[in-house]
Amino acid sequence: MTELRSKQKIAVVGTGVIGASWAAYYLAQGFTVTASDPAEGAEGRLREWVDGFWPALETLGLADGASRDNLSFSSDVADAVTGAVFIQENGPERLEIKRAILAAIEAAAPADAIIATSSSGLLISEAQAGAKHPERIVLGHPFNPPHLIPLVEVLGGTQTSEENVQKALDFYTSVGKRPIRINKEVKGHVANRLQVALWREAFSLVENGVVSVADIDTAISQGPGLRWALLGPFLNLHASGGEGGITHVLEHIGPAQREWARDLGEYPETDDYIGLMASGVDEELEGYDFAETLRTRDRLLIELIGAKKQAPQLP
After folding, report:
1. Same domain, yes or no, for 17 and 137?
2. What secondary structure letter does DSSP report for 175?
3. Do 152 and 7 belong together in one domain?
4. What is the pLDDT of residues 88-98, one digit of tens each?
5. Beta-strand (E) ranges in the chain?
6. Which residues are in the 3-hydroxyacyl-CoA dehydrogenase C-terminal domain (predicted)?
7. Tell me: the pLDDT tens digits for 170-228?
8. Which of 80, 114, 150, 235 might form a disulfide with 36, Cβ 3.0–4.6 angstroms?
C-alpha cells in the first residue's frame, strides 16, 4: 500500500490554513501532492505552513517514503488535478466561487477521481448544481487542524452516487481518518452545529453576566471536555446511568433537562456581543504566549490521539 501511495497523486486546491494542513497530512501519508492556489505568494506560505506542521506529523508517525519533497505547486488548477486519484478542494465559502472552482477541477480531473470539498457549511447539492459530473462531488469536511484531528464529515448531494460516497469514506479511513457518514444535508453539517449549540449558550451566559469568558472555557476544558475527548456525549450519558445506562439517566433527569433547554439563551441577532467576547478572551490570555499555548495544545493532542489509538476499548 505504501509503495502504491508513493506513486499516487493527491491534488489540493486552495492552500489557506485548511488546504495547507490537508497537504501536509497527505504528504505524511506517503502521497505525492500537487497544490494550487491563485493568490500571490501562496506557494511560499504553503511551504512555510507544511514545514511548521511537519514536526507534529513526525511525532504521530510518517508513512514509508513520506517527504515534503513530494510537494509541488502550480497556479493552474488543471495542471494540479491532472492525474490525481483524489482531489481535496478548499476554496472560499461562497457558492459562486465554489462552483467556479469545481468546474475548473472537473474540466481536467481524471474521470474516476473523487472531488471532495472541505466546505464547512455550504450544501453539496447547491455546490454541485450545473456540474458536468456531479455524481463524484462529495463533502469531505475536516475539523481544524486537519493534519491532527481525525474527524472528517462525508456527505453526498442529491446528484452524488452512493458508490462515490462510499469511495470517499473508504479513502479517508485508509489514510487514518475517522469519517462519519451524514445521511441528510443540513446547514453547518454535524460537528459545527454541535459547536454552535454550545456557543449559543456560552454567549448568552456571558452576555447575561452569569459567568466570565475564562470560566466558560474552564467549565468545558476542565469538565465535560475531558470526558468528550475520550467518549462522545451519548456514551458519556450512558455511563452516567450506571446499570440502567442512558435509559435510566434520561428517565431520571430528562424532565430537568427539558426545563433547562427551555431556559437556554438564543444566538445573538446582532454583532453587539462580539466586543464583550473578545475582551473576555484578551483577559483570559493575559500573561500567556498564545503561540506557545497552541504549540502546547498540539503536543497534548498528539499524546491523546496516540493514547486513544492504543486503547481498543474506546470506540
Report:
1. yes
2. T
3. yes
4. 999 999 999 99
5. 9-13, 32-36, 71-73, 86-89, 114-117, 137-142, 151-156, 178-181
6. 188-256
7. 999 999 999 999 999 999 999 999 999 999 999 999 999 999 999 999 999 999 999 99
8. 80
Residue 263 covered by a domain: yes
Question: What is the C-alpha separation between 302 and 216, in angstroms, rounded?
Answer: 24
Q: What was the pLDDT predicted at 19?
A: 97
Q: Which residues of 244-276 are buried (b: 16+ CB within 10 A; e: fewer)?
A: eeeeebbeeeeeeeeeeeeeeeeeeeeeeeeee
Q: Which residue has the cell 496516540?
A: 306
C-alpha cell at 224: 465535560
CA distance 129 to 186: 17
Same domain for 257 and 120: no
C-alpha cell at 280: 473576555
Long-range CB pairs of 275-281 (<8 Å, 24+ gap) are 276/206, 276/207, 277/203, 277/206, 277/213, 280/206, 280/212, 280/213, 280/214, 281/213
pLDDT tier at 7, thresholds 50, 70, 90: confident
Q: Quote the domain boundaries for residue 198.
A: 191-309
Q: Which of 130, 161, 181 is the last residue of a domain?
A: 181
How many domains is the chain partitioned into structurally? 2
In this predicted model, what pLDDT tens digit does every residue of 221-270 receive, in sequence order?
Answer: 999 999 999 999 999 999 999 999 999 999 999 999 999 999 999 999 99
The three cell numbers locating residue 137 = 462531488
| Rounded-to-integer distance, Cα 5 and Cα 29, Å | 8
